[in-house]
Structures are given as structure tokens and as C-alpha cells.
Amino acid sequence: MKSIHSHHIVTETEVVDGWLTIDDEGRIAGIGDTPVGTRIEEVQDDWLLPGLIDPHLHGFMGWNASKTTDETQILHMADALLWAGVTACVPSCISSPMMLENVHALHEARTHQRQGAEILGLYMEGPFYNPEYNGGTPVQYFQKPSVDQALRFYEAAGGDLISLGLAPELPGAMEVITVLNQKGVRVGIAHTGADYDQTMDAIDAGCKMATHSFNAMRGLHHREVGVTGAILLDPRIYNEINCDFIHVCPQMIEILLKMKPWDKILMMTDSDSLTGMPPGTYQIGETPETLESNGKIHLPDGTIYGSGRLLLQDVFNLIDTLKIPVPEAVAMASLNAARFLNVDDRLGSLKVGKQADFIIVDPLHQCRATFKKGVQVCGRDQRNTLVNPEFMNLKIA
């Protein structure tokens, strides 16, 4: 047994001043007033938060999970995520000519992973999207919804396909939703111009979430509320949301939180390989991408292309700016994803019996140390050993 003390231990329901005790198998044995076993640290004014879970990301610190057939790129990304306080994640592929191979690489990475942020499965962002709502993805890689193609992706993922996004208004989409739902894949509503009725039909058919809510989808109109109105009104839908205050303004997030309970919100980053790197313009394949100092990543035409901010920073956006209670804001970036992904029996919160995955966060909201199963696996000073050493060669401005 060993114990760690903090004035700010964030549980599922409250912030506790006390000791977090970890048993010899790396599980949380207690949260209370008295230390048990070895005292490993007294962090005092630092926060103890559950390890964060990012359910939708593409890259980090120069590593890429979405444009690669090399599983080592994905595994390096998972290692680097520990520095940001993320202890579990769902890497996401995008529509591309190598999509099938990328899906297989993501599966191989999960199969061979021995360290880093735990890869819980993979998310397919595309290719069954409406080209009018492409975001930053080249439309030539979009495909018409097809059950046969969806099953090819499912088989290439080797059982690791957790979720897939599509535009429900496209011909064939309902059949794909039905088949994947039967196989346990969480189908998301994404990159879509669907109207209200089309969206409700998709939810009735089994859609479980709205991918990066409000981005790359038809907006709200007072005569036809469309997909945006449907995902706000329907209590069955989990709302994925980027809380960097760049993708979605604070007021829109406030509207969402007034419409939906906090336990239906999935915070995500949609992070890119530029995330965690110095600001500037980088030549990524044929397309230059620019990372601004505020964390905004954009293409030459101004299209926002992922986020350069950390999930932990976005949690404190909710706490400091929107005054969301700390346990609720933290749960939106940990427990809710664990529940959505059916791993909340062991991950997602600081609760007796769960895996002792937690992070120490200083008063400046920076992750000072990351623990998995009660063992420190990353510290703030390890950044230079985790970043892709070759990525800076791509910096052109």
C-alpha cells in the first residue's frame, strides 16, 4: 500500500482534501483522512485528477495516427500523450487513399502496445461524408455509404473499431448504421447537412453520438432546426465537443450545457501532429498547416484543422470561464468517455476499486506528473524525449 496527499482530490462527486491510497496491484484502495502504507508524496495545493481520456484525436507532438501505415508512429503518439495528462485515447483515422491500411495500423498498434496512453480502440472519421461539409478533408476521398465497404473497415480493424462517423442523409447511410450498430460500433453523426427528420431517423436506427458537435454540420434555423437542433434536443445522443473556445465559442458551449446533462458530454481535442509543437507553419504532405500561439491550427484558406490545445487546458476553460463545477468538468474529459466506451468499471474516475490512473496538476493547470496503476510513468521534464525529433524539419515559417 502507498498513499499520496492533496487538498484537491477530484472524485466523481466532489473535491476532497485527503489521502489517495493505492494497493499493491495498482488499484485505488481508499480516499480518506488517513494515509495507509508508504507516503509517496504530499502535493498539497496541486490537483489530483483522474487520467484524462481523449475519444477523438489524430496526432500529437509531431506524431501522426491518421496519415500513416506505421504502427510505431501511433505508439509514439500514445507515449507522448502521457505528458499532457491523457492516460487513455481513441486514435482517429481520416478519409484518405490509405484509409484501409491506416485502420490496420491502428489495430496493430493497439495489439502491440505495452506502454503509453492506453489505446481503447479506433474511430473512423469518414469516408461516408457529405462533401458540402468536408471541413479540412479533401472531398475526393469521400465515398458513398456502403455496407460492404463498412464491413471491410470493420474487418481490417480486427475488432477494434469503436466508432465511425457518417452523414445520415446520404443514400445507403441507414443500412450502414443498422449493420454497424448490430456489431457494437458506435455510429456518430458527422460532416452532415441532414435535416431534423433525417437526423432523428439516424438516431432511431442506432446513432449514438454527434461528432465534434456544431462543427462541419448544418446550423440551426428557426424554421427547420436541422441536425444541430436534433442533437441538442435528443437525450439519447452523446455530444462530442471541442472546448478550446476556437472550434466552438463559449456561448455555444453554454447553450449545449443548458440543453444536455453534463454526463452526455464528451470532451475531445481533434488534435493534430502540430499539437504540442512550437507555433509556426509546417509542410504536412502537400498542404501547409499553421499553428498559432493560441492553439488554432488552420489551412492556408483559413479552415480550422484540428486543435493545438491540450485537453487539460480545455477542462480549465470550463472551470474558470464557464464556472462549471470541477467534478463535472473533469468528468466530461474522463468518466463520460469511459462510460461511453464501456470501460468505466476500471477507468475514468478516482473511485475505490478502479485502476489508479491519475495526474498531478499544478495551480497553473499544467500536468506535473502522470501515473498509471499507481506508478509514475511521465513527468513534465520528459517532453524532449517524447517529441518527434524529425518533425521540426517540416517547419517552413
Number of strands: 22
| Count of individual helical segments | 11
- Unreliable stretches (pLDDT < 50, length at least 5) are none
Q: Helix- and strand-based class?
A: alpha/beta
Percent strand equals 25-35%
Shape: globular
Q: What would you report as the Rg, rounded to the nearest angstrom?
A: 20 Å
Give the mean pLDDT. Answer: 96
Q: How helix-rich are the residues, as a percent range? A: 10-25%
The end-to-end distance, rounded to whole angstroms, is 51 Å
Largest β-sheet summary: 9 strands, parallel
Written account of the structure:
This protein is an alpha/beta fold and 397 residues long. Helix content is 25%, strand content 28%. It contains 11 helices and 22 strands. The chain has helices spanning 71-81, 99-112, 147-156, 173-182, 196-205, 226-233, 250-259, 311-320, 326-331, 335-340, 383-386; strands spanning 2-10, 15-22, 28-32, 38-50, 52-57, 59-60, 63-64, 86-94, 118-119, 122-125, 161-166, 186-189, 209-210, 238-241, 265-267, 280-284, 287-291, 296-298, 304-307, 358-361, 367-372, 375-379. Strands 5, 8, 9, 10, 11, 12, 13, 14 and 15 form a 9-stranded parallel β-sheet that branches. The protein has a 7-stranded mixed β-sheet with strand order 3-2-1-4-20-21-22. Helix 1 packs across helix 2, helix 3 runs parallel beside helix 4 (173-182) and helix 5 crosses helix 6 (226-233). It is globular and about 60 Å long. The model has no long low-confidence stretch (mean pLDDT 96).
